Amino acid sequence: MDSIFRRFQFHSFPSDDALARAVAGNFVDRLTIARDESRFFSIALSGGRIAAAFLGAAANLVIQRGGLGELTHFFWADERCVPPNDAESNYRLANSLLLAPLLVPPSQVHRIPGEAEPAQAASCAAAEYARVMAANGVAPPRLDLVLLGMGEDGHIASLFPREPTETTADPLSFRAVVGPKPPPNRITMGYPTLATAREVWVLVSGSGKEIALKEALSSAGSSPLARLIQMRDTTEVFSAVSLPG
């Protein structure tokens, strides 16, 4: 078997809803354990079409399980350079479906300030990430869980194809990028920040992604998702998209 297959676990689902419910269950299991152990737990969220179904399902389950812990903190793997109330904002999506329903205190929410000038927004996000990790004794900084989607071109967060390969090693935890999709100005976590997370879950849904997914799971893959998988010991891929034969 191709060696890259030892670097990920592939979970197949018959529909987007089934995927969202299953991942929400796994997600809330992690949150509940951390809460019951009174343990700091850090999460990075993303946007994308599947995110809305996942976030809504997760909120309902958290409420059923008795709420979040006081040491659960939320970051974002990427953000569009828009105000937090803009329809394109990843923060707005998460806030409306997960954070606000759960009454998560602002002190546990660390959004990327997309309304700021891009370089400043990236710098602020990086400083806040470092501050929260240091305050909770996590050195070097390391996320517990990252949730990502995948685009039709294999992009993850706001890491797009055709970036120079040296960006894989860029040490910045957050950086400003100009992407090929509107709105073009974005802030993204860099590859090393994503690669060092304890767990990375990639949720893949929607039509037109079959070829990109197969390429990402190949040892010869060069897409952003392929790069991330190759940098990690294991990555969990949850897919409502069938792999081509």
Could you describe the 3D structure shown?
Helices cover 35% and strands 18% of the residues. It is α/β, with parallel strands linked by helices and 245 residues long. The chain has a single domain, classed as Rossmann fold (3-Layer(aba) Sandwich), CATH 3.40.50.1360. The strands form 2 sheets. The protein has a 6-stranded parallel beta sheet with strand order 1-9-8-5-2-3. Strand 6 (174-178) and strand 7 form a beta hairpin. The protein is globular, with a radius of gyration of 17 Å. The protein starts with 7 loop residues before the first strand and ends in a 6-residue tail after the last strand.
The averaged pLDDT comes out at 94
* Number of separate strands: 9
Low-confidence stretches: none
The level of helicity is 25-40%
- CATH fold-type name: Rossmann fold
Largest sheet: 6 strands, parallel
Gross morphology is globular
Strand order of the largest sheet: 1-9-8-5-2-3
Write the H/E string, N to C: EHEHEEHHEEEHEHHE
Radius of gyration: 17 Å
Pairing-aware structural class of the strands and helices?
alpha/beta
Going by CATH, the architecture would be: 3-Layer(aba) Sandwich
